[in-house]
Design brief:
This protein is of the alpha/beta class. The protein has four domains: 219 residues, Copper homeostasis (CutC) domain (TIM Barrel, Alpha-Beta Barrel); 88 residues, no CATH class; 91 residues, no CATH class; 218 residues, TIM Barrel. Helices cover 32% and strands 20% of the residues. The protein has an eight-stranded parallel β-barrel with strand order 1-2-3-4-5-6-7-9, surrounded by six helices. It has an eight-stranded parallel β-barrel with strand order 15-16-17-18-19-20-21-27. Helix 18 links the parallel strand 19 and strand 20. Helix 4 crosses helix 18, helix 16 runs parallel beside helix 17 and helix 22 packs antiparallel against helix 23. It is globular, with a radius of gyration of 29 Å. The two termini are 49 Å apart.
Length: 747
């Protein structure tokens, strides 16, 4: 008998959750109306959650809750309040991204099962081990991985008692999830806060390749790859779509359920995707999964492709054929909607009614009989009823003492005191003990957990520390700067060093003062080569934007600093890094504002860093972004593209905002903002807060001009940190235009 794989469906609202259940989902993932990465979805209220849990579990469907955004310092009390409620529900898992939330869940809310969100960008084995140390039970792997990479990571995950999820249907992001800041920088709607406005799918000025939507990918569909996913050992197949409607969810889940059933019973698959094309799609691709990153993954139209597809298979894209196809699609969807509405109308998320009967006389125990639609049971007090006490047991007192039962999957419908003798008393602690017994039974034999008070971290003491300047470079031509300044020099390593290992080992051994700076994305063989690089170099200190390399540094006893793309924005994230991985310091994310920084409390013997000047990374992509912009003679990326290609281009949207596309040798394609970030205010705004302030002098050509060579630019920043008069003004006149919008807006 074949191993069963979980089918995991999106639940953006109550109707979608019901639709997923009736279509055959094994589990649904949904968000509350706050703290989740799909603010554009309707989501569900806290009041509805227990009813949803009861409904889902009755149909043998698990429910996972998405709390997968970055949490700012002032939100932590509200967040822990949510966790205190969830810990006494039957929720099957909590999906998170924020390192501070991993820390809180693992330390204070151990009953809740932790799932790592796709926003955590998990793509190498070190990251899986990193998550294992944080008590994660499941990880959603990056969408960009191929089947061999998925298989290798699933093996490592299983060796570390972690399950793996893989997205198998729905939207493809052009950027690695969790590493996109385009919406944040342009509009203040951070993808790491669930507010992505999808500027990548906007229309752009027609490119040299004649494309109007150059960053728009087809939807992901692994519908015909089920056998390969099963052979890879994947535990869960995840369907994207929490902002989609219920009829979409039903149609896609039903198609996948039929595919799984046929695979289990006949060892065969349905090859066609017609059922999936009945609802919204941008056409389909499985090229990431196949490891074939091609031009064919793009589609120059972000709208629904259903009618176009139907028209094409019916003879061509004539105007008459397309109009008929639109009508046919509309009619078919109307039928689907009507059918699904009838099915989900029979499902209710109402809580189960609870009736409570109290009885007893002086000198006897209090008897509490509880009845539900499914069962009944009795609970007795340990102490006998008395004729004296603090409060007589009447309707008002008992409702007050037992109203917490309404926070379960049940709702008190009736409280009957007919067989309770009047004017009887019972100590409050006895009523509390009975309440806990009832909660234990109603919560499937789970002990009730009293609200956990998460410790309030101590405030930072005022410090006279003067921040030290650091500089980031990425070219051997800039090594002369080590003789020009006393600033710490970081050297950015590319995403892939497997073909240039000797070159980089020699570079760092020759220039012993350099500190290696590791990128955010390091996959497969490149990850293993980077680990070998650490073994050979044995550096004293590194900066890493990748948690897999952080794990390796921790295991090897290498001092390490968390880079800015680890998205660190709260005190508990810092504690997580220090206590679990012996991290010595962290860059605070450039996404947050001055006000959001001020509440952060750093651990003892821990340093904080911040980048005050840099080209703004908007996204990193595994796809070739030149295909649609300037063109490329290759139809697909091959083994020479990452190590050998070095190109730049730009593209401009209809609002006349330009973006720089940059590909350096050894690295993935990256999109940068056309204007660099410069924040000179932070020196005066947060004195003594940061141990180090960094300037990024890599050769990224943007619209920002620097009217001085690199050595001169460093001197200007040094003068500013030393308090030289007019240095701030001189910097802002020398480097222009710039922005510090994120520092003002935050997330």
């Amino acid at each position: 008998m074949k191993r069963k794989i979980e089918l995991l469906a999106p639940g953006g609202d109550i109707d979608s959750i019901k639709a997923a259940i009736v279509a055959g989902a094994d589990a649904v993932y949904c968000g509350l109306d706050k703290f989740n990465a799909r603010n554009r979805a309707t989501n569900i209220s806290s009041d509805d959650l227990n009813g949803i849990l009861r409904l889902a579990h009755k149909h043998k469907c698990q429910v996972f809750l998405t709390l997968n955004i970055l949490i700012t310092e002032n939100e932590i009390p509200a967040f822990t309040g949510v966790l205190n409620k969830l810990v006494n529900t039957s929720i099957d898992g909590i999906i998170v991204q924020d390192l501070g939330m991993f820390y809180l869940l693992a330390k204070y809310f151990k009953r809740l099962k932790i799932h790592a969100s796709t926003q955590f960008t998990t793509h190498n084995e070190g990251q899986v081990k990193f998550l294992s140390k944080l008590a994660a039970e499941r990880v959603n792997l990056s969408r960009e991985l191929n089947i061999d990479e998925i298989k290798a990571l699933t093996l490592v995950a299983h060796q570390n008692n972690i399950l793996t999820e893989v997205f198998v249907h729905g939207s493809n992001c052009i950027s690695f999830s969790g590493q996109c800041y385009m919406s944040s920088v342009h509009g203040g709607n951070s993808g790491n806060r669930g507010r992505c406005s999808q500027p990548c799918r906007d229309q752009y000025l027609t490119t040299a390749e004649g494309k109007n939507f150059p960053l728009n990918l087809k939807d992901n569909s692994a519908f015909t790859d089920l056998k390969e996913l099963s052979d890879a050992g994947v535990d869960s197949l995840k369907i994207e779509g929490r902002i989609k409607k219920f009829h979409y969810v039903y149609t896609v889940v039903e198609a996948w359920r039929k595919q799984l059933t046929r695979f289990y019973s006949e060892d065969k698959l349905t090859e066609g995707t017609n059922a999936l094309r009945k609802v919204f799609n941008r056409d389909f691709t499985n090229d990431y999964l196949k490891g074939e990153i091609t031009k064919n993954m793009f589609i120059d139209n972000p709208r629904d492709n259903s009618a176009i597809y139907l028209s094409e298979i019916n003879g061509g894209l004539s105007e008459a054929s397309l109009e008929k196809a639109k009508g046919d699609v509309y009619d078919e969807r109307t039928e689907i909607i009507t059918s699904v509405e009838k099915q989900i109308a029979q499902l209710s998320i109402a809580k189960a009614p609870l009736q409570i009967f109290f009885s007893g006389i002086h000198g006897s125990p209090l008897k509490v009989l509880v009845t539900t639609p499914d069962t009944s049971y009795e609970v007795f007090s340990e102490v006998n009823l008395s004729d004296t006490g603090t409060e007589v047991l009447n309707q008002e007192v008992l409702l007050k003492r037992f109203k917490i039962l309404n926070e379960t999957e049940y709702l008190i419908e009736r409280v009957d005191l007919q067989d309770l003798h009047p004017n009887v008393y019972l100590p409050f602690k006895e009523l509390t003990a009975i309440k806990k017994k009832l909660l234990f039974i109603l919560n499937d034999s789970r002990e009730y957990i009293e609200p956990i008070a998460v410790p309030v971290l101590k405030k930072l003491e005022s410090s006279n520390i003067k921040p030290k300047l650091s500089v980031l470079i990425s070219s051997a031509e800039d090594l002369y700067l080590t003789d020009e300044t006393s600033a710490t020099i970081y050297f950015q390593l590319p995403d892939s060093i497997k073909n240039s290992m000797e070159e980089f080992v020699d570079l760092f051994k020759t220039n012993t003062g350099l500190i290696p700076w590791f990128p955010s994305i390091i996959i497969g063989e490149d990850y293993r080569a980077t680990v070998e690089f650490l073994d050979r170099l044995k550096p004293k200190c590194i900066v890493t934007n990748n948690t897999g390399i952080a794990f390796e540094a921790f295991k090897k006893g290498i001092s390490w600093i968390a880079g800015p793309q680890l998205n660190t924005i709260n005190s508990f994230s810092l504690l997580c890094l220090k206590e679990n991985f012996n991290c010595s310091g962290a860059f605070i994310s450039n996404e947050i504002s001055k006000m959001q920084m001020q509440g952060i409390k750093k651990p003892d013997d821990f340093e904080l860093f911040y980048s005050i000047f840099h080209p703004i990374v908007l996204m990193t992509s595994r796809q070739c972004l030149f295909h649609q912009v300037t063109g490329c003679w290759k139809d697909a990326m091959d083994e020479t593209c990452i190590p050998g290609c070095a190109r730049t281009a730009s593209t401009t949207n209809m609002k006349n905002t330009s973006f720089v596309i940059e590909k350096s040798k050894g690295s993935f394609n990256t999109i940068y903002n056309d204007i660099n970030f410069l924040n000179t205010d932070i020196v005066a705004d947060l004195p003594g807060f940061y141990s180090g302030l960094m300037v990024d002098l890599r050769d990224i050509k943007t619209g920002t001009k620097t009217g001085m060579d690199k050595a001169g630019t460093i001197r200007l920043f040094e003068n500013m940190l030393n308090g030289a008069a007019e240095s701030k003004k001189e910097l802002e006149q020398t480097i222009y235009p710039t922005t510090k919008g994120q520092y003002k807006k935050g997330i």
